[in-house]
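Notebook, bench 3.
Goal today: get a predicted structure for phosphoenolpyruvate carboxykinase (GTP) from Ctenopharyngodon idella so we can plan the truncation constructs. The sequence was checked against the plasmid map this morning, with no discrepancies at the termini. Length recorded as 181 residues. Pasting the sequence as submitted so the record is complete.
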Amino acid sequence: ARVESKTVIVTENQRDTIPIPTGGAKSQLGSWMSEADFQKAREDRFPGCMAGRTMYVIPFSMGPVNSSLAKFGVQVTDSPYVVASMGIMTRMGTPVLEKLAEGAEFVRCQHSLGRPLPLKAPLVNSWPCNPEKVLISHLPDTRQILSFGSGYGGNSLLGKKCFALRIAPRIAKDEGWLAEH
């Protein structure tokens, strides 16, 4: 399921991400993580996380590839489920690679189930994931999305909510258009 408590937006300044309520109340509009805390969390999770697994590279387009409105991404993942699902959810493959070769900007997406092989602990329900260390992080300043430990679609199909809901609005702001999801 979605894990909003483990979904963060990483920016230099908290106020760039979420409103800061007075009186110490927690914002209901998202969770912020500092760049320093994110680097620690990243180093705790990603090194060696795909060991023993196949790493897939997925060039994809949000929208028709030749449209002036298309936005591109490249996702790396260790999940065959993600590869198959991204083929349904996005336009992917050689036409996208051709656009990237022409210099099209793209969002960098990294996903890992967080269960390198050989397994150190048995799988629960035969589904590889790492629920204790789940972290879905969005870096709008650098156009990156990093997702660790979850196989749930909203957390692993990074062109979906992560790109469309959290990164596209920043791209829209920078380019002078409106992102709607």
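The domain at 4-11+33-173 is CATH 3.40.449.10 (Phosphoenolpyruvate Carboxykinase; domain 1). The radius of gyration is 17 Å.
Flagging this for group meeting.
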